[in-house]
Amino acid sequence: MTVLLPLLAFLFISLLVTAGAMALSPGAAATIERRLGEIRGVPVADELPSFRKKLAGSFEKLSKYAPTPAGEMGKLRARLVASGYRRPEALAVFIGMRLGLAVLAFALVALPIFGRANVLLSFGAAALGYLLPGMALGRMAQRRQHRIRLSLPDALDLLVVSVEAGLGLDQAIQRVGEELAFAHRELSDELRLVNLELRAGTARSDALHNLATRTGVDDLSSLVAMLVQTDKFGTSVAQSLRVHSDTLRTKRRQRAEEAAAKTGVKMVFPLVFCIFPAIWVVTIGPAAIKFVQVLFPMAHK
Known about the structure:
The chain is mainly alpha-helical. The protein has a domain at 145-257: Receptor-associated Protein (Up-down Bundle). Helices cover 82% and strands 0% of the residues. α4 packs across α6, α6 (119-164) packs antiparallel against α11 (237-266) and α10 (218-233) runs antiparallel to α11. It is flat, with a radius of gyration of 29 Å. It starts with a helix and ends with a helix. Residues 41-48 have low confidence and may be disordered.
């Protein structure tokens, strides 16, 4: 029995790898199109999008077997939108990925491949595989929000210039979204979505509130509130944007000063665990060796 279990585990992993390779391998139509493109001299398309598409399709099919509470679906969709994933199948792909990682982690720990099988460790690995995609998604959303927060003062400067040049607020938002496409991709995409909503007939206040809800950035929420109030009370948009831009630049400088002040505290752990032991070995090591060489013969006498 002890010999049969590793053999079964090896066969299971081999079949799993073979099935994955067959599912993700390019089809005959894709191969023919690639060869025809090479004959015509057209640049060959990268196979990575096809790989991602098949992998996403596999996760989407797997999501049908995952429990999906109604209260959690809205939160997951909001986190996916905040991370930049707006496709309709993004939620199903994420749920399938979470379930697939949990099953894979359980199988790897439950089978006696790397050691003795343990039920508690298997369930712990499954829970970890289930939680890791959510943690990674939250991290991606925070990084995207940070990039949007850093790009907001530059966008406000462009808005001020566009409005003072005679453009309306809607045209200024469209122009800024086009100008920021190279330097600040995330904010440019969000402003283009606002422009598309305005073209579709959405009220400006609703489109701006949707922008703040999608991104979840506090600075952008305050900007939206200022623009809505400016539009409601009829005050100068350019002057309000200029004042708000100065405020955001002050907040960005204060955040940089706060991060610099935290550097000393964050450097304590690398110093204590990485640098100080090396310094002690270099400075005290030769003296300790000499001390042992001198005292040990005297102790034996």
